[in-house]
Every structure is written in C-alpha cells, then in structure tokens.
Amino acid sequence: YFQRQKERCLEGKKVLITAGPTREKLDPVRYISNFSSGKMGYSLAEAAASLGADVTLISGPVHLHTPVNVRMIQVESAAEMLDETLKHFDNVDIAIMTAAVADYRPIDVASKKLKKKDANLSIQLERTEDILYELGKRKKHQYLVGFAAETDQLEENAKKKLYKKNADCIIANDVLEPGAGFGTDTNVVTLFKRSGEKIPFPKMEKTDLSYRIFEQINKEIREEND
Ligand code: CTP
Ligand code: CA
After folding, report:
1. Which of 96, 138, 139, 186 can pair with 179 through a Cys bridge, CB separation 3.0 to 4.6 Å?
2. Where is the DNA/pantothenate metabolism flavoprotein C-terminal domain (predicted)?
3. 133 in a domain, yes or no?
C-alpha cells in the first residue's frame, strides 16, 4: 500500500469522475433511481488523488464521505450531471464514467404530489442524455473510460459500448456475480481496450482495483505519447 502511495504516477494529471446513481423526479416527493452505492467511483477518486492527480468528482446522491483532496460537485439528475461534466471535460486528461445514470426520466414532472387513484398507474418515460456518449463525441486529447453493468453476454455488450460511445476502454462487471457490482466493497471486472486487449481482474476490494485500473490507464497514456 505504501509503495503505491509513494508512486505519484498521476502527478500533474487532471481526472474527472462521475459516480453514484441519478434521481429523476416524478413529483416533489418521488423519483426514479437505482441501487448504485457510488463506491467504485469514490474509490477511484480517492486512488487518483493519492497518486497525485487533480480530481473532480461529480456525484449523484450517495451515503459516502468525500475523499480528501477531491473537488466534489453534487448533482441529482442525469441532465445536471451532464451539465457539470461538460463544464470540466475540456480541461481534463482522464475522464471516468462510473455513474449509474438513470436511462429514463418521467416526461411530466408534477408540481404537486400525485394522489393515488386507480388500481394501476402508468408513467410515461423518456430517454435521458447519455453522458459517456456525449463525451465520446467531443473527445480530443482526453483518455475516456466507461463502465458497463451487465447481467449477460458481458464481452459482447461491453465491446458494443466501447465503440458506440467512442471510449478508450470499458470496464465491465457482471452485476449478478457474487461480490460484484452494486453496493459491494469488492468487484469482479474485465477491462476491454480499443486495441482488443482484454484484462480480467480477479475478485478484489474496490480500493485495490482502483489502483490496478490507474496502472492500466497510465500504461495506455504513456504508449499514446510514445
Ligand atoms: N452512461 C452515461 N449516461 C447514461 C447512461 C450510461 O454516461 N445516460 C455511462 C455509464 O456511466 C457507463 C456507461 O455509460 O460508463 C455504460 O452504462 P450502462 O448503463 O452499462 O450502459 P447503457 O449504455 O446505459 O446501456 P444499457 O443500460 O441498456 O445496458
Ligand atoms: Ca444504463
């Protein structure tokens, strides 16, 4: 651990990370969201800061402490998260999208609390902005990392996201696997690079995994500059 800390391999680098879920309002007291705990993103932010990076963390609502030496921006909805992310993207070297952004939001947001009426209720939803996709379109010098939460056909789905969103790598986890995914302190992931290289990591603490991920990103950035 001390060894890792000593190595300030991200000194001078600016890192942008999104984390946690988003909340999409239905009325003043209700929202649509998901089970994301934010642990992976916060852990990456903490690792990046301790490796010497200038870190900005854009987070949806979670129950975690802000890591030290991290610039924190709290948001609620996908639209707010996109706004804040775009404000910072031009100025960063590495952008990592770990947030579990809600894919849909209610089309109408009621200004007053909805009252219950019939036995069934249908709510019309519309797609939210895809933040990673938007960054992929705007990408210049940045190294762009996406995550992929999958329950099946991990490799195929992860590679689709890699190319569709113009990311430089995708870190995929099988959310149904024990010790992986939402809410856990450990994760089991495979990293897919654009070169076709595929790096499976064994089950490990999200803290340790964060350092291993930056090791890979650093390798990629150095190769690009060679
Ligand atoms: N993502 C994003 N904005 C969204 C949805 C996803 O930035 N509106 C990002 C996530 O932060 C992650 C990657 O895209 O880095 C993949 O997210 P995921 O939910 O696995 O994929 P989707 O493209 O949303 O596809 P689906 O949920 O249908 O599998
Ligand atoms: Ca999604």
Report:
1. 186
2. 10-219
3. yes
Residue 111 falls inside a structural domain: no
In a domain, 117, yes or no: no
Q: Which domain holds residue 82?
A: 2-104+125-225
Interface predicted TM-score (ipTM): 0.99
pLDDT in tens, 121-145: 999 999 999 999 999 999 999 999 9
Coil/strand/helix, residue 18: strand
CATH of the domain at 61: 3.40.50.10300
| C-beta 130 within 6 A of ligand 1 | yes
Q: Considering only CA atoms, which residue is closest to atom 4 of ligand 1?
A: 130
Residue 95 lies in a domain: yes
How far, in Å, are 71, 73, 137, 212, 222 from residue 10 at the CA level? 16, 21, 25, 13, 11
C-beta separation of 166 from 139 below 8 A: yes
Continuous segment of H or E residues that includes residue 72: strand 70-74
Taking a 5 Å cut-off on Cβ, the residues next to ion ligand 2 are 103
Which pTM does this prediction carry? 0.96
